[in-house]
Amino acid sequence: MTMSLTWTSPLLRRFILGAGFVAGMVLPAAASSGLPAPFVSRALDAVLIPIDGSVQSAFGLSADETGVLVLAVAPGGVADSAGVAPGDVISMAHGHAVKDPITLDEIVYYWIQKGSFDFGFDGWHGGKAQTYTTTITLESYTAVIDVSVISTWSSYSYESFSYADYTTEYSAEITESYASSETTIEETASSEEFATEETVSEDTTATDTTTTENAGADQTDPNLDTDGDGTPDVSDTDDDNDGIPDATDSDENGDGVDDSAE
């Protein structure tokens, strides 16, 4: 089967931006800096770079520090106001894994369109786990960023890395990718495939949170009595009150179905 994709296809546009192609022009995967091209985030008012092997090596990141590295933030912008600093790593956005910079903006744009404006970002600051919370409105997300001034933003300084040289090196790509990514983000975030991924991930996160909370309650509340039989869970050997000890009960939840078949 032959599949034909055009530039209007959101999947192709997404792949092209991620692979380093802009406006029909092939860009080098890594220029003289040896680093991937930067991405100007509408969601965070920040310059982000995908974390790959070259970035981990150049900035001394650990194997756990995955996602995107924050190279610069606009003074007073969303990231700056939330406490996100140059050099921080963002691995999760709104409970969803961040694979690359454009994914972060797609996640934020998707949930803004759903009427959700409060966001949490999980990552790393100085090698330690960090969580940031902030509000991102459609107005702030759609505010146009003047990419010609991002070289003046508060930036990351690390050993021999020069943010000024880096942004100069990629100045043309920064301008082109910022303009073309808007349509790509909107099309991707509006696709059924993306919506399914976000919904499944959201459900999984909610389930994990509930399970963790219940487990925490079992450990911290010695008087918790889930089945209401007057015996605290910590010492209850017959959770479903069927007269059969849990250790030998093949139907511990009392639903009439053998546990091995559920």
3D structure, described in words:
With 262 residues, the protein is of the alpha+beta class. It has one domain (10-202): Roll (Pdz3 Domain), CATH 2.30.42. 36% of the residues lie in helices and 16% in strands. It has helices at 10-19, 53-59, 78-82, 101-113, 138-142, 163-169, 171-189, 192-220; strands at residues 21-22, 25-26, 39-41, 46-50, 68-73, 89-93, 96-97, 118-125, 128-135, 154-155. The strands form two sheets. Strands 3, 4, 5, 6, 7, 8, 9 and 10 form an eight-stranded antiparallel β-sheet that branches. A two-stranded antiparallel sheet has the order 1-2. Strand 1 (21-22) and strand 2 (25-26) form a beta hairpin. Helix 1 runs antiparallel to helix 7 (171-189) and helix 4 (101-113) runs parallel beside helix 7 (171-189). The radius of gyration is 24 Å and the shape is elongated.
Please tag this protein with its features:
single chain, 262 residues, alpha+beta, Pdz3 Domain, 8-stranded antiparallel beta sheet, two-stranded antiparallel ribbon, 8 helices, 10 strands, disordered N terminus
Q: How many structural domains are formed by the residues?
A: 1
Q: Uncertain segments of ≥5 residues (pLDDT<50)?
A: 1-8, 18-30, 215-219
CATH-derived topology = Pdz3 Domain
Binned strand content: 15-25%
